[in-house]
Amino acid sequence: MASPDLQSKVNQLTAKIEGDLTSVVDEIERTKLRPIGRQMHACIVSCYDKAGKNGRKEQIEQCSQQCQIPYQTAGAATQQEVGNFQNRLNRAMMQCNDDAQGMVTPDMQHDTRKMKKVEDSLLKCIQSAIENSRSGLKPMKQRIESHMS
Fold it and tell me: pLDDT by residue (tens digit) across 71-118?
């Protein structure tokens, strides 16, 4: 249904929101996940130090697993929130597409003026969906960071 011009505009919009999302996730990784990862590795080293030459292998493994929990929890929270964000955006864009398809009648198929009107409506809806999603980036970041405190 989409003209090449519409598809190009939608691609530009989605590339922008994907870039914004990537920036947020990269910042979280640099400022929150890396320090937690460093603490995890330091903790694991201390497990080996505590066990020394006489400690049992199981003791080291159990200690190491405990050290990994904060990092695993933070990573899982990040993945969950990013997935939820992407799902919300996808649902909103699918709703826009459904709405546009619902506007099309058989007599419109060959009427470029009427189809342009539908495409304009679709683009406006997608722009709104992306802007609404963009406003959700900061709360998403705050939710992720709250799992890391």
Answer: 999 999 999 999 999 999 999 999 999 999 999 888 887 888 988 899
Dist. CA 24–CA 138, nearest whole Å = 8
What is this structure's pTM?
A: 0.85
**Does residue 142 contact residue 78 with C-beta atoms inside 8 Å?**
no
Measuring CA to CA, how many Å separate 96 from each of 5, 92, 100, 106, 118?
Answer: 17, 6, 6, 19, 11
Q: What is the DSSP track for 74-113?
A: HHHHHHHHHHHHHHHHHHHHHHHHHHHHHH--GGGTT-HH
State residue 1's pLDDT score.
52
Range list of H helices, the chain: 4-28, 34-51, 57-103, 112-135, 137-146
